[in-house]
Give the backbone structure.
Amino acid sequence: MTTVTAGAAPGTGPGTGAAPAPAPRRRGRRRWWGGQPLGTLFAAPYLVFVLVVFAYPLGFSAYMAFHDYFFTAPGVEVPKPFVGFDNFATVLTDPQVLASFRNTAVFLVINVPLTVGLALVLASALNAGVRWAAAYRVAYYVPYLTASVSLVGVWMLLFSSNGLVNAVLGPLAPDPSWLANKALAMPTIALYVTWKQLGFYVLLYLAALQNVPRELYESAETDGAGGVQRFLNVTVPGVRAATTLVLVLAIITGTNLFTEPYLLTGGGGPDGASVTPVLLIYQRGIQQQNPDVAAAIGMVLVIVVGLLSLAAQRLNRER
Amino acid sequence: MARQVLLAAAALVFAFPFYFMVVGAFQESPTNTPDRLVPTSGWTTQNFAQIDARIDLAGSLVNSLVFTAGVLLGTVVLGTLAGYAVARLQFPGRRLTWVLMLLVQMVPFQLLMIPLYVQITRGYGLGDTYLGMILPFAINTTAVFIFAQFFRALPREMFEAARIDGAGELRILRSIALPLVKPALATVVLVTFIGPWNEFLWPFLITKDASLQPLAVSLANYITNVSQTAANPNGAILAGACALAFPVVALFCLFQRYFRTTDLGSAVKG
């Protein structure tokens, strides 16, 4: 996001890394200090970093969302009264906010199934031991590594009204063109993001496929299962855990779009058809100087992402 | 056979926009029709000069480099220490550190963007500074995970032997553990590099001063504002896009043989 986050900042989902073994029990002071108290010193910079850049802003965000918070001139102390759920009420009755969540839904409906399907198909084709597999892997991964601003510049030209895509389509070209068309702006962004992120998910699936035992494929083949059947009955269940991870990461990426609508459709156009919640956080919070409302949008967004991720995990659970 | 066709077709879809970008960056007029996709004439380097005249290409690249180098330095020095501590040392707060590492990865940056903006520009007065740009990214948590996984995989006896020989932890880390996890370093550098280098939203928020903007931000400004008044905006946009994309692609090609899928997998899902 932006990075992800910030770029490659994956690693949600349950069981990220094995938890460290509990410290062996020792007596008295040594037990409290553990074996190597120096470890505290080593970890201290990271802990301070998390405190300053994550914990504090998180608390601050909650504070802003429940108060009438506004920017004042430096040094001026003005009371910022507690307003309960007022900011949330403002957010949830704002037609633009509701539209931004609808736009996100359109995005997810297109992006998530495409991402999961294409990534798994490409990964399992690569995993079958084909020639030039390494070169293909590089080709798929490079868009993920490249800055979105660069690639958005290219897509803008390709999908402009007299761009290459429309030239190839000829009379089939949509009118108004892709990014200027209310019905097509969000789907075009969804296609772009699928294209850009797919390589990362292909690599995730490739890693997961290493753990699917070869014998399963062999015995399925002996039982007379064809290629498609093997894919559906061995590959798909074999990488279920990875699929959950891909679903959750794709949902997080899709609900945090900013660069794409900001640049591709000139700030969420046409006529608000590709406005996203994060774009609104920027507009409300910084351009219009309402950080309290922006913080409330952020909290609603995180709750929605959490619920969607939970739903994805439930749906994908082994039955 | 069907597999090869599928994979090759996909590779073409992934690679084509890059081809279009590179060829268009060196064309007097980037093509919009399929019959001129392989141009034989009209080559120029003017596009780079043109965008440089508007956004100071070299200056923006330097800003991107400072931003990225700051994050890399923080991650490699402080992230290694944290990764080593949670992987190999028993200390109070070890479990807490591990739990925080997991939680940090679940907090989307977008939730923090408004409070961080207020905190860093108004609280610390770091708007329009390199430090303000670097601070929220200073230690990449994914990198700490990768370090921790690698350190944990080293044999326990080695550390015990070194401790018995009287080596301090810093010495063990520097002379024994670090040289053994060099492949992790390659992955960490790549994973960490693409974060700040490609980042748009955060530096966009806190830099008003154009002379401090990294290339991702100044190129975006060019695309949204300046390009309307340029003679060959498409060529200039593609030239800027090339300049922004090239360092990452070059770094990836350079490190490709150290970069293992499985490292990424271990960092992501344990």
The first strand of chain A starts at residue 3 and ends at 6. The CA atoms of residues 284 and 290 of chain A lie 5 Å apart. Chain A touches chain B through 120 residues (CB under 8 Å). DSSP finds 14 helices and one strand in chain A.
